[in-house]
């Protein structure tokens, strides 16, 4: 059963079609070879001479190798190999051959495809009719007297009896040749049509760049939306508790909720604009320490979280990239307190400079260490990623009776990070 699948299975039939297409592509080159060899054979038409036809086929193959240098050759051949030969898409290169080595491999593949395809296509045209005649020859003896060019040995009885066997063997040989050559081409295709080392490197760099963008967007979504949800939840909870006793606080909480959600929707639109194909990024500016530190502290305090902040640097003098990443780090530090310590936990925020580094410290009293903090959440990993990308460092954890987040960021070299 496995032998029949190898010879006549769906994949084998598709590869046979691929070879016949190669033979069809070889025909124009064979015709050019016949025109070249016409004067050599003493006639303008060499179709009557099999040796000259074979020589014309050989002459046409170098011409095929030259025309394979066109940019579309490799994409078209790779597509045909993928669909007809069953080669995985990841093992093929679908772009034009750019380097000399890639063009040489493409020329070698195109020559092999047309060469083997021409041979198998010729056999596919000649062998089946001849085999059919041999198979029915004992029944239709009059075929021996026709002008089919049958060998004289078939006039003998033993040869006539063996003719059907020879016919069946000829069909099996044709099928085996087509299947075997199809397997060889499928094995050679990744080496000749596959990506070169430089192509793989470029693809890896593109995937790494795409992954970096996705990770950055994930951090932005986590920090902005996560902080907003934590703040809004606590603000709404605090307003509900004092709804009847402190209307002024309720108004401030509702105003803070409105401001927080409006800003977060703008940031969310900016991030989603990057994710949508063909859409321009949103127009909401990325928040920075210089632009929104006071607003961030105000909205956090409106959640019922007392924040004591000391800023010993001028936020407006920081490089834009550093100011933006520092804002997100401060935002995440305050969000952690909102999520894990809850409203009422006193927070101390320190932003200063030491040895040309920006230092950010967020501290709050530690009542107990929640289990979720033991391994660090996505937010703390995001803080570590931001610090590492800027060449800095971070650490977070309990210190005596205090939960402490400390981040150090170099201020030099951050302008173009």
TrEMBL record:
Keywords, ordered alphabetically: ATP-binding, Kinase, Membrane, Nucleotide-binding, Phosphoprotein, Transferase, Transmembrane, Transmembrane helix, Two-component regulatory system
GO cellular component, one term: membrane
Membrane recorded as keyword: yes
Gene3D superfamilies for this protein: 1.20.5.1930, Histidine kinase-like ATPase, C-terminal domain
Membrane-crossing residue ranges in chain numbering: 16-38, 50-72, 108-141, 161-186
Coiled coil, from the record: none
Pfam families xref list: HisKA_3
CDD domains per record: HATPase_UhpB-NarQ-NarX-like
Reactions the enzyme catalyzes: ATP + protein L-histidine = ADP + protein N-phospho-L-histidine
Enzyme Commission no: 2.7.13.3
Every Signal transduction histidine kinase subgroup 3 dimerisation and phosphoacceptor domain range: 214-278
Molecular function per GO: ATP binding; phosphorelay sensor kinase activity; protein dimerization activity
Family annotation (PANTHER family): NITRATE/NITRITE SENSOR PROTEIN NARX-RELATED (PTHR24421), NITRATE_NITRITE SENSOR PROTEIN NARQ (PTHR24421:SF10)
Protein name: histidine kinase
